[in-house]
Amino acid sequence: MAERITGHTELIGLMAYPIRHSSSPAMHNEAFAQLGLDYAYLAFEVTNETLEDAVKGLRALQLKGSNVSMPNKTVVGQYLDELSPAAKLCGAVNTIVNENGKLIGHITDGIGYMASLKDNGIDVIGKKMTIAGAGGAATAIEIQAALDGVKEMSIFNIKDKFWENAEKTIEKIRSNTDCVVNLYDLDDKEKLKEEIADSYLFAQATGVGMKPLEGQSIIPDTSFLRPDLIVTDTVYAPRQTKLLEQAKEAGCKCMNGLGMMLFQGDAAFHLWTGKHMPIEHMKEVLD
Ligand code: NAD
Which of 157, 238, 250, 266 is within CB 3.0–4.6 Å of 225 for a Cys-Cys bond? Predict the structure, then answer.
């Protein structure tokens, strides 16, 4: 480290709380080192209370950029100068880019999901997908998929505090894209089965499948699946959720959340440096 950091080294931050457990610093610093880029990535414990000062600090110190995670993703936009179309529609920012003093907010989670599909040879553009979820991850995927040209999307969520967000998301998709989108209750399993039946892809983007809901699945059994259906899960811990076990059993092509995590990082990395991460190397490191 002492040899690598010089007076020229550019700093990229990560502003969130709690954040010490994050794998993002290791991921980005590994990519910088592999490519010989003179950047360093550090995590900072920033809450909603200290966020405005932290952004002012980022400006004053002329940081190249920052990632933003919870609880700041939906709050930081007001302190920035401009938002990407997806960040505006999602109402959330996970990446700040300092373009000569102008702070631009982006959301790369949806970009990451779409890139991980592509990386797996999956092309959902012009097709129908069914997706469960209305939280941060799901909203980013839904907005990006609609912006990228998914033809039809059926969104399912339970009627909890996220339902209202799902209603807002479908309104935004309807008024800003050509995607045909509908919202259904995830507890209506008959409807879920019906929508999955004529979808090319089924995406799981709720917290079901990871702690404290590990071992659970949003589908009751494998009769909801068929071999030519693609099933993706945003969860990456565990790598193999109950849903992905069911999908494997049904003979579906499967994708866990690791690719989305890697490619959301790559999209941010590209915004800051103009270069892509060494993807194959990063996959080995992350696995
Ligand atoms: P969030 O808290 O914003 O949203 C939670 C979602 O889960 C909501 O849609 C909620 O209605 C749903 N939910 C909660 N309990 C449920 C239950 N018992 N039954 C059905 N639905 C339920 O969370 P988030 O940030 O959107 O994360 C969702 C999942 O995506 C998590 O598992 C997280 O690990 C994963 N994630 C992955 C990535 C990645 O890069 N792969 C990025 C972000 C989040």
Answer: 250
